[in-house]
Amino acid sequence: MSKVYGPRHGSLQFWPRKKSKKMTAGVKSWPRSKNTTLQAFSGYKVGMTHIVIKDTRPTSMTKNEELFLPVTILECPALKVLSIRFYKPDPYGKKVALEILNPKLDKSLERRLSLPKKYNFEQRLKEAQDRISEFSEVHLLVYTQPKKTGFGKKTPEILEFGIGGNDIKSKLDYAKGLFDKEIKVSEIIKSGARVDVHSVTTGKGFQSVVKRFGMPLRSHKSEKKRRASVLGPELPGKVHWGVPMPGRMGFNLRTEYNRDIIMVDDKPEKINPKGGFLHYGLIKADYVLVKGSIPGPCKRLVTLTEPLRPGKSFGNNFTIQYISQESKQ
């Protein structure tokens, strides 16, 4: 039987292979936007299924044809606001100048951090309004409500999201208006849009060069079949940084650009399969269908943001004909 060869594994674009500090994906840069709205949302990865759509794009080569698409399902329970964070310019970039806590916080947050017993909300708000000219950016700290999901987690995650717009005062007014309400995914993300997906990949543990770099197995005459080849010349007496070596694999922060949102819905009965999703259960909250696969295992929190370099998308030029609800057991 002939051997199957493929390209080398492990792109050097991601060197060094650094382990993620947190299980939640942090976002460092936000796109410039004219609309004063939240620029991201988060959801828990449920699993994958497939759908059939009818392509109605007028200039498409598959116009009026049925297309089979694999999709990833994200369960997106409503978010709540933890605080408003203000940044001011600094010689080394930017630093936090002020933070206003939401006076009405859930008790479940005590599992994640220590909540203050006394807090003067009005005083902090007045201070922010007086110093509004000092600030360069306004971000929103939100927390998830995993108790509303299908797998019943209790401890919420805390995430920092950017707010679009150019005026700091309008950003503050927008953030203030979110204190007393829940933020739903349908208010931030629309079907047919494109998003960037930020996620932490599945951890694989300590692996050899065969799995980590795709190196072929050595001959049957070799002492060890899965051992790495020659590490380099005798001089200079050191190992080059690019030489494949065994080590930790996976659990890396990855960003995938311009992913199509196929559907945003609040009716779980349309998507729940017989017997529930493997290792997850039944969806109970709002959910999103994203075209293709997403890094990370099920139950991993995934962040969806406005596209940093947007391109052409499907838009709403399709109709969903079928969603698979067959048992995944």
What does the model show?
The longest helix is centred in the middle third of the chain and has 10 residues. The model has no long low-confidence stretch (mean pLDDT 91). The two termini are 34 Å apart. The chain folds into two domains: 155 residues, Elongation Factor Tu (Ef-tu), domain 3 (Beta Barrel), CATH 2.40.30; 105 residues, Ribosomal Protein L3, Chain: B, domain 2 (2-Layer Sandwich). The chain contains four helices and 13 strands.
SSE blueprint:
Layout: E1 40-55, E2 66-75, E3 80-90, E4 93-101, H1 121-130, E5 137-143, E6 158-162, H2 168-176, H3 185-188, E7 194-200, E8 203-207, H4 209-213, E9 247-250, E10 253-265, E11 287-291, E12 301-305, E13 318-323
Antiparallel strand pairs: 1-2, 1-12, 1-13, 2-11, 3-4, 3-5, 5-6, 7-10, 7-12, 8-9, 10-11
